[in-house]
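ok here's the first one, seq then struct tokens
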Amino acid sequence: MDYINAFWVGGLICALTQILMEKTKLMPGRIMVLLVCTGAVLGAVGIYEPFQKYAGAGASVPLLGFGNVLWKGVKEAVMEEGLLGIFKGGFSAGSAGTCAALVFGYFASLVFDSKMKK
């Protein structure tokens, strides 16, 4: 049942994002920022944690999950280090996922022969 919940929740998030992209004049970068900020706000309010427990990877993999990770990192860093944690926490929490995406993206570019569109 965990796989089914992850599938339909992740699919719903992606479908709603696609509808937002097609029905509004918002640029994709702004929609991405909106998703990250929404995840952070939902984490701050306390809604995202139970949502993530229910949906698993369907909630943690999309950009909403990245916003929640940033929020958790900032919250923990502020608790430990005070005001300086506002600046350090997000970097500490999001660095492993960002680094993995960059490294695996680089390896994929070595394995596959990408071409520019004409």
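and now the second one, same deal
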Amino acid sequence: MINIHSSVLLMFLIFSCSSPTKKEIATGISLQAEQYIPEVDGKMNEISGLMIYDDHLWGFNDSGGKNELYGFNKSGKIKYEIELDDAKNRDWESITQNDKHVFVGDFGNNGGNRDNLRIYKIRKKDISNKDEQKVDVKEIEFEYADQERFTYLDQTTPFDCEAMVAFKNKLYLFSKNWRDRTTWQYELPTKKGKYDITPTDTFNVKGLVTGADISPNKKILALVGYENFQSFIWLFSDFPEDRFFEGQSQTIYLEGIDGAQTEGICFLNNDSILVSCEKTRTHDQQVFLFDLKKLNDGTH
């Protein structure tokens, strides 16, 4: 395998993750949820990833679901069903894109015992306007270089991930760290291969990260997650190169959706964010809108 970064960095991160984070704003603010799609088609009762492409929203079900992507409109109706050939949905958790490709992350690992983590890569030019279709994929496989044990750990593993973005010809992953509620940043090439990865940075999100996206102008990274039934978004801006956590940071508490299992996130534009949640006892599968402009005009 190709070792992306040295394991020495990981030891540094482990011992430093409890220290104050860089430029972190100590107190968060709140933002009210607005309904965008009140109910998505029942085929997608677990919307674990969210992306906008070709004037449609795209998502999928997570662990145990079909190996299919679904494109749906603002009414929540599914227009496209795309099967990924020779792919299996072990635990799909994130979707992102660059100019030429779509990437689907099959790396959900709540138990910390998976040894088959991968990202499926799809060429956009292979996606047609047919309602139902099948596309070929290439696989980007990876392992956490410092993971030595693969025994099942019920919601205590640091080697779980549900968030990914494509940025400057690389893929960036953000861990769902059950152990201490931080997130670790990893990076991967976008080329087919098999890689060992170690963290390049860490940030104390004080919760579980379940999704990520980059704004269209590439100036803001957003991470969505939850803790104690309260959903949040972390925004990072003014970051140098790809060192997202070295920029300005702000946490936003999402009001009006307490108890929702927030999973997917994508920017509708540079000033607004969409967040999807799975079907639970308290919420239908749906998509909420959060208007970032209201953070500046006082209406939050």
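notes on #2: The longest strand covers residues 220-227. The CA atoms of residues 38 and 286 lie 5 Å apart.
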